[in-house]
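Dear colleagues,

As part of the handover before I leave the project, I'm documenting each prediction I ran so the next person doesn't have to rerun anything. This entry is a single chain, and its sequence is reproduced below.
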Amino acid sequence: MIANCDNLKWEDAQAFKDAVGEWSDRIKVQVKQIQLRPMKRKWASISTTGRLTLNTELLDLPKELGEFAIVHELVHLLVPNHGKLFKCFMSAYLPDWEEREKRLQGFVG
């Protein structure tokens, strides 16, 4: 995994999906389906049954921002809200998650 290459993009959709598999193994959650599609209002979402939907625009952004979206959604399989426990898990898996989140929000619009 490459941590600090700000402008490194995803090779292709399969590489992005492979990253989901790597992160789900690390976090020890099960993703049953991965879907890439254009989304108007969000970067990603996950159902309680493990269906992960990722915005296709993430493919054109730096990899570490896509990783943030992946980890954020997978952590929701552990904690359904954005409370203190959620933030603890995010910090454990991605110590710089807050900075990544701010950068990703900068791409909205």
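The chain has a mean pLDDT of 92. The chain has one domain: 13-105.

All the best with the project,
I.
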